[in-house]
Amino acid sequence: MRGKLRDFLPLAGGEWLISFVTRNHPGELFDRLKGKDVDVEIKKFSPGRSRNANAYMWALCADIGRAFDPPRSKEDIYRDAIKAVGVYIDKVLTVWDVPTVRRRWESHGVGWIFEVVDDAGAGHKLCNLYFGSSTYTEDEMRVLISWLTDQCQQMEIPIPLSKEAENELIERWGKQWQN
Question: Which pTM does this prediction carry?
Answer without folding.
Answer: 0.68
